[in-house]
Automatic annotation (TrEMBL):
It comes from the Bacteria. It catalyses: ATP + protein L-histidine = ADP + protein N-phospho-L-histidine. Its EC number is 2.7.13.3. It comes from Saccharothrix variisporea. InterPro entries: HATPase_C_sf, HATPase_dom, Sensor_HK_TwoCompSys, Sig_transdc_His_kin_sub3_dim/P. This is histidine kinase. Pfam families: HATPase_c, HisKA_3. GO terms for cellular component: membrane. Residues 223-286 form the Signal transduction histidine kinase subgroup 3 dimerisation and phosphoacceptor domain. Gene3D superfamilies: 1.20.5.1930, Histidine kinase-like ATPase, C-terminal domain. The chain crosses the membrane at residues 61-79, 107-129, 174-191. PANTHER family: NITRATE/NITRITE SENSOR PROTEIN NARX-RELATED, NITRATE_NITRITE SENSOR PROTEIN NARQ. GO terms for molecular function: ATP binding; phosphorelay sensor kinase activity; protein dimerization activity. Keywords: ATP-binding, Kinase, Membrane, Nucleotide-binding, Phosphoprotein, Transferase, Transmembrane, Transmembrane helix, Two-component regulatory system.
Length: 419
């Protein structure tokens, strides 16, 4: 069935249903697949890239050929019927020497000067002088070459013709010789400065790209460290609580099925803690910090849900503490309770927080383990105390951890408040 567009304009002028458009006459034809005048866009782009690559590879060769051609045209343009054979020979040598100006710049200038002085190769000498200035800058060779080119323009060959000129012509030739010798040097120095500037810009771009990559790596490393710490603090706290409750249920349950289920839960929790330890080892690549959300005010709820006989004592004002310090205290207590469940079972724990005008002291003590054999089954990667030490160091605090006199364990952290 013909469409509305077909009925209105006919088959020859209808628009393609693929979204392309066809214009009559010499207009550009846009193909549905993308193309210009019937040639696919990919082929056009590939041809353009090939041409650019070819030009880049043969750029110096093309410049050398152009320089020789310009020098040869200059000799042909100043063709003199009454010139001698040696005039043409010196000019031809000068033109041929231009092809080697990149490899032997000073020698090429010496070869082109006779063709300029006694021949017709003025542009050959100027091109050689410009190349020498670009390579050697304002060196001794450049000054000598500039003097020779200036003299070739100032002195008129043969000498008898030079002596016949009046003093005004000599002054004019001297000034024009300065222009002929100075312009190639100026152009050579300008090209060298442009190349140096391009190299510096490219180096700066590479440096910026390298700096951007290093910054991105540092940000990712900090994020990995923060993620590792938060995973260890939060997930390990909850999973160890599950493992402890499952162990208690297995010991208290009389039904064998319930004991088996509790044992399975404890086994899975233990395996989860072990996998978490390995994951934290991978993520912990650097020390980073991000202000945690929990605060000291959340500690009563943390202790109530820990499943441990824990007591909390808070002395001094703690409501106006910085968020970083308050969060670090919460994470310290949380990690200490996790360690108590791992290594001390249901041992009684006391948490004491003392704040004054200068510093904040946090101390967590627990009694000796109730069932050491049961606690030894829980895996530990050793990252908990390391993370607490890192948090304390980032806040200019001090960290202490070790066995207490009564066989328990003590964790103490001090944070300075007058910073």
């Amino acid at each position: 069935m013909p469409s509305v567009m077909t009925a209105q304009y006919g088959d020859k002028r209808r628009m393609a249903e693929t979204g392309g458009r066809v214009l009559a006459g010499n207009a550009v034809e846009r193909l549905p697949s993308g193309g210009v005048n019937g040639v696919p866009t990919e082929r056009v782009a590939q041809a353009a890239r090939g041409l650019r690559d070819w030009l880049a590879r043969h750029r110096q060769l093309m410049l050398d050929v152009s320089a020789v051609a310009i020098a040869a045209f200059d000799v042909w343009f100043w063709f003199a019927p009454d010139a001698q054979v040696y005039n043409y020979a010196l000019s031809v040598v000068a033109v041929a020497a231009v092809a080697f100006r990149r490899r032997f710049p000073f020698l090429v200038v010496l070869l082109t000067v006779p063709g300029f002085l006694a021949g017709m190769a003025q542009l050959a000498a100027m091109i050689a002088l410009g190349t020498l200035a670009r390579r050697k800058l304002l060196s001794t060779q450049t000054y000598i070459a500039a003097g020779l080119v200036w003299f070739s323009r100032f002195f008129l060959w043969p000498p008898d013709k030079f002596l016949e000129l009046d003093w005004t012509t000599h002054i004019h030739d001297a000034i024009y010789g300065c222009i002929v010798a100075g312009m190639p040097i100026a152009i050579g120095l300008l090209v060298h400065a442009r190349e140096e500037l391009s190299a510096r810009i490219a180096e700066l771009a590479e440096s910026r790209e390298r700096e951007r990559m290093l910054h991105a790596h540092a940000v990712r490393a900090d994020e990995r460290a923060r993620l590792a710490r938060e995973m260890h603090d939060v997930v390990s706290h909850q999973v160890s609580l599950i493992a402890m409750q499952a162990g208690a249920l297995r010991m208290a349950a009389a039904d064998p099925n319930a004991q088996q289920v509790a044992g399975t839960i404890r086994m899975l929790s233990t395996r989860t803690l072990d996998e978490l330890r390995q994951l934290v080892s991978v993520l912990r690549t650097t020390s980073g910090d991000d202000s945690p959300q929990p605060r000291i005010e959340d500690l009563p709820q943390l202790l109530a849900s820990s499943g441990l006989p824990a007591a909390l004592t808070v002395l001094g004002p703690v409501d106006e503490l910085p968020a970083s310090i308050s969060g670090a205290v919460y994470r310290t207590v949380q990690e200490a309770l996790t360690n108590v469940r791992k290594h001390a079972g249901g041992a009684a724990t006391s948490v004491r927080i003392h704040a004054d005008a200068d510093e904040l002291r946090v101390e967590i003590r627990n009694d000796p383990p109730v069932d050491p054999a049961e606690c030894a089954a829980l895996p530990s990667g050793g990252h908990g105390l390391v993370g607490l030490r890192e948090r304390a160091a980032l806040l200019d605090g001090t960290f202490e951890a070790g066995p207490s006199e009564d066989g328990g364990f003590r964790v103490a952290v001090t944070f300075p408040l007058a910073r």
